[in-house]
Specification:
- The chain is an alpha/beta fold.
- It has two domains: 164 residues, FAD/NAD(P)-binding domain, CATH 3.50.50; 252 residues, Polyamine Oxidase, Chain A, domain 2.
- Helices cover 38% and strands 16% of the residues.
- It is built from 20 helices and 16 strands.
- A seven-stranded mixed sheet has the order 7-6-12-13-14-11-15, sandwiched between helices.
- Helix 1 packs parallel to helix 20 and helix 5 crosses helix 10.
- It is globular, with a radius of gyration of 21 Å.
- The relative contact order is 0.20.
- The mean pLDDT is 95.
- InterPro entries: FAD/NAD-bd_sf.
C-alpha cells in the first residue's frame, strides 16, 4: 500500500488526506498545534457557552465546493443552517443593500438596480455547477465548459469599480463593494471583481450558510472520514524539515510558499524556490470577537436578520479604505466583515448573550489595536451597541501569524490577490501543486482556487499526488 504524509490539518490538508485515503493510500496527517483545523476551529473565546469561530465563519464555498459536496459532510455530523437574510450592507440613514439566496427576492429588494443585478448574477448562478469544474482548479487547463468560463472570465478580469458602474443606487453598489472587498485588494485594479462576483453568484445558487455548532464541525467531519478510511491524525508535531519525516511515497504540504521553502530548503529546484520566495502576501486582518447582550441593534431591519453584514459605507468609502491598507495606512473607517452566525444557529449563544464575529482590513503587520475602529463602524449603523458588549477578545496581525504561520503579517487569505497571483498562484506551472521535488506537493490557500473552506486546493493536490503514484 502506498503511503503519504500531509503536513498541516487545515481544510485543504484534510481534504488532501480524505482524497488520498479514499484512494487506498495510507495517510498520516501531522499538525503542529494540539488541535486540528487550521483556520476552521471554534472555541469559547469570550464568555462560557458562547461559540466563536476562530477564522472561517460563513461558508458559501463550503456548500458549493465539488469536493465538499462529494464528501457528504452531512453524514458526518455537519448540519447547515441558513439565516433569513444572507447578506446586508448598511448605509447611513438606515438604508441597506440586501442579498438573499432567492434572486427574484433580491431583485425586488434592490429596486431600480434589481434587473441589472439579476442580469449579472443569474446566469452565473445557474451555470455554477458547470463553472466549478473550470474555476476551482488550475487556470492552465482545457476548459470543460468554455462558453460559461468565458462569460465569467470576461467579468472577473475587470476592476470591481468597472463592474459597479452597471448599478445606479448606493445600495447595489455598496452591496457589490462589500463582496469584492473579500479579496483584500484595491477595487480599481484588474481582477478585483473576481472573488466578489463568485461569492455573490454562489450566494444566489447555494446561500451563505453556517454549520451548526461552529466551523470546527467541518474539521471534525473531514477528520472522521480520514479515520474511517484508515488514516491517522497526530497533533503537537512540528515539521521543520522534510528530513524529519519518515520514508514515504508522497508528502503534501498545507503550507504557504515561505513555509515550503523553510521545510524543503535546497531540495527545491532553484526556479521553484525563487518563485516561492517572490510570492506576495496581502494586507492583514484584525479580529474582534464580541459577546453582545440582546444582539446588535441595527438601524436597518434586514441587518438584524442577516447572517453576514459588511460595514464600510458607500462603494467609494470602501474603495478608499482598501487603497489605504495597500499603502500601509490604517483607515479611520476600515472595511469590516461581521458575522451573526447565532441567528441561523442559536446553539452558539448563552441565553440572551450572543457571539458576534468581526474583523477589519488593516495594513500588513499592523501593530495597533483596531478594536475601537471596528466598534465605531458598528455603532455607525447600530447606535447603542457599545453598551451591550459584555466581553471581547482580539486577534492582532502578529497573533494571526502565531496561530497559523501561513497567515504572514496577518494575511488570513494566504496571498495577495493581484492579477498575477489570481491567475497563476503560487507560480506559473502546468501543475501548480507540484513543488519540483518528486512526490512533494503544496496544497494551501496559496494554490488554486485560493482562500476559502472548500478543500479544493487539497483535493487537487491529492489528485496530482495520485497521478505521481501511478
Amino acid at each position: 500500500m502506498p503511503t503519504a504524509i500531509v503536513v498541516g490539518s487545515g481544510p485543504n490538508g484534510l481534504a488532501a488526506a480524505v482524497t488520498l485515503a479514499k484512494a487506498g493510500v495510507e495517510v498520516t496527517v501531522l499538525e503542529a498545534h494540539e488541535t486540528i483545523g487550521g483556520g476552521t476551529r471554534t472555541s469559547e473565546l469570550t464568555v462560557p457557552g458562547l461559540l466563536h469561530d476562530h477564522c472561517s465563519a460563513v461558508h458559501p464555498m463550503g456548500v458549493a465546493s465539488p469536493f465538499m459536496r462529494g464528501a457528504d459532510l452531512t453524514s458526518y455530523g455537519v448540519t447547515w443552517r441558513y439565516p433569513e437574510v444572507d447578506l446586508a450592507h448598511p448605509l447611513d440613514g438606515g438604508r441597506a443593500g440586501v442579498m438573499v439566496q432567492d434572486l427574484e427576492e433580491t431583485r425586488a429588494l434592490l429596486g431600480a438596480d434589481g434587473d441589472a443585478w439579476a442580469r449579472l448574477f443569474g446566469p452565473i448562478a445557474d451555470s455554477f455547477d458547470d463553472l466549478a469544474q473550470d474555476l476551482m482548479g488550475p487556470i492552465m487547463h482545457v476548459p470543460h465548459h468554455p462558453l460559461h468560463l468565458a462569460r465569467f472570465g470576461l467579468r472577473a478580469l475587470l476592476p470591481a469599480s468597472t463592474v459597479a458602474r452597471r448599478w445606479q443606487t448606493d445600495e447595489a453598489r455598496a452591496l457589490y463593494a462589500g463582496a469584492a472587498a473579500h479579496a483584500f485588494f484595491p477595487l480599481h485594479r484588474p481582477t478585483s471583481s473576481a472573488i466578489g462576483t463568485m461569492l455573490l453568484a454562489v450566494g444566489h445558487r447555494f446561500g451563505w450558510p453556517v454549520p451548526e455548532g461552529g466551523s470546527a464541525k467541518i474539521t471534525d467531519a473531514l477528520a472522521a472520514i480520514v479515520l474511517e478510511h484508515g488514516g491517522r491524525l497526530e497533533t503537537g508535531v512540528r515539521v521543520r524539515s522534510l528530513d524529519d519525516l519518515p520514508p514515504t511515497d508522497v508528502v503534501i504540504l498545507d503550507l504557504a510558499p515561505a513555509g515550503v521553502v523553510e521545510v524543503a530548503g535546497d531540495r527545491l529546484p532553484r526556479r521553484v524556490r525563487r518563485a516561492y520566495e517572490r510570492y506576495r502576501h496581502g494586507p492583514g486582518a484584525f479580529k474582534l470577537d464580541l459577546a453582545v447582550q440582546g444582539g446588535i441593534p441595527w438601524t436597518n431591519e434586514h441587518a438584524r436578520r442577516a447572517g453576514t453584514v459588511h460595514l464600510g459605507g458607500r462603494f467609494e468609502e470602501i474603495a478608499e479604505a482598501e487603497i489605504d491598507i495597500q499603502r500601509g495606512r490604517m483607515p479611520a473607517r476600515p472595511y469590516v466583515l461581521l458575522a451573526q452566525q447565532y441567528l441561523a444557529d442559536p446553539t452558539r449563544s448563552a441565553g440572551d448573550v450572543h457571539p458576534v464575529w468581526a474583523y477589519a482590513h488593516v495594513p500588513t503587520g499592523y501593530d495597533g489595536d483596531a478594536s475601537e475602529a471596528i466598534i465605531a463602524q458598528i455603532e455607525r449603523f447600530a447606535p447603542g451597541t457599545r453598551e451591550r458588549i459584555v466581553a471581547q477578545a482580539t486577534t492582532s496581525t502578529s497573533a494571526w501569524e502565531d496561530y497559523n504561520p501561513n497567515y504572514v503579517g496577518g494575511d488570513i487569505v494566504t496571498g495577495a490577490n493581484d492579477a498575477r497571483q489570481v491567475l497563476f498562484r503560487p507560480r506559473l506551472a502546468l501543475d501548480p501543486y507540484a513543488t519540483g521535488i518528486p512526490g512533494v506537493f503544496i496544497c494551501s490557500a496559496a494554490t488554486p482556487p485560493g482562500a476559502g473552506v472548500h478543500g479544493m486546493g487539497g483535493a487537487n493536490a491529492a489528485a496530482s499526488a495520485l497521478r505521481h503514484l501511478r
